[in-house]
Amino acid sequence: MNSQQHQRALVYKSLWYAGPWVLALGVVLVGANLRGSITSVGPLIGLIKDSLHISNTLSGLVTTLPLLAFALLSPFVAHLARRFGSPRVIFTALLLLTAGIVVRSTLGVTALFAGTAMLGLAIAVCNVLLPSLIKEEFPRNSGLMTGVYSVSMNVVAATASGLSIPLALNAGMGWRGALGIWAIMGVIGILLWIPQLLKARKTVDKAAISARTVNVYKSSLAWKVTLFMGLQSALFYVPAAWFPEMMSGQGMDSETAGWMLSVLQFAQMPFTFIVPIWAARLKDQRILVLIMAVLYFIGLGGFLLGATQWSVIWVICIGIAGGFAFPLVMMFFNLRTRTPQQAAELSGMAQSFGYLLAATGPTLFGYLHDATQGWTIPLLLLLCLSVVLMFTGLGAAKKRYVGGEVDDQTAI
């Protein structure tokens, strides 16, 4: 009887620590921590500026700094995963993310930027490793898992942007409390990722076995994926940072403007789930790129023409376009590589150079607004970026592999 109970306990322990459903839940919780700490800033930009007495350009750096952190750390993440194992590296990143949120919400300007840099470095790690982890652990369901964790990112992102003003003003928490409360999500992610630490040694061994890879920096396809990554990121982070301010300047009250950013996020959600599943079943993904581009043209064109009475329509179009763009580039990391290690290398390259490109977006958008005292030139910039995004995406969507750049039928 005792022996049977012991065996049963071992089975339950094995299911808890190593079961795929536990890993899937952990992936969802990691994804849930990757955007809320950033999207919660946009609606609060005005309060932060007034409280700390900083300029539009410097306040844009609050959103830009995480992107710079992504660019700085991303190239080294795959090497860290090979040495220490993805579970351990992700767990450490969750600890750093939670600490960064807390630091950002204390004291003055220095703490604001120091905490923002910390959470940016942490998010960079998870951004790079999740696609390769999914490719390795869920090879037959990569589209589904990409969709699931993308949805978790957007649910929290939308909630964070919508609740920022109510928490700061109506709940009396101020902008510091409205930013700091998202540390709770980090703690939950830490607790639910602990079971994966027991698999760390196994992950290290797998990484060592699959260490053979191609030089992604010499691949034209990898550079197309990288440019696509950077442009779609810019088209996400600029609206996240500045659209509430822009709509407030056009006569909308600040709380409604904050919720409009939530509308953008909620519009993304069904498509961040559907698009990766759709993409995994297609021979190539060019049709998805074209749909994305048309939606960006409509949404940005509507704001550019000044049709503010239709702002919710333009926001929804931009949101759906982002719902195509982000999961597409996450799928490119898997669909354009042959091994999990190659996926991590491509992800690190694309997110490094891509986010370096995207990092200029919020600051440049704010600078152009300061320089022109209007929104027309900044919006024209976004429209031009969406055109380049379309052509880059069409190249990245063809069925080829990094290092080979040949059709699947002739690939060895």
From TrEMBL:
Query: Which InterPro entries does the protein's record reference?
Result: MFS, MFS_Cyanate_Porter, MFS_dom, MFS_trans_sf
Q: Where are the transmembrane segments?
A: 15-34, 54-77, 89-107, 113-134, 146-169, 175-194, 221-239, 259-280, 287-306, 312-333, 353-369, 375-397
Question: What is the name of this protein?
Answer: CP family cyanate transporter-like MFS transporter
The principal location of this protein is membrane
Topology of the protein relative to the lipid bilayer? Multi-pass membrane protein
Domain (Major facilitator superfamily (MFS) profile): residue spans on this chain? 19-400
Keywords, in A-Z order: Membrane, Transmembrane, Transmembrane helix, Transport
Q: Where in the cell is it found?
A: Cell membrane
What PANTHER family does its record include? 2-NITROIMIDAZOLE TRANSPORTER, PTHR23523
Q: Which domain of life is it from?
A: Bacteria
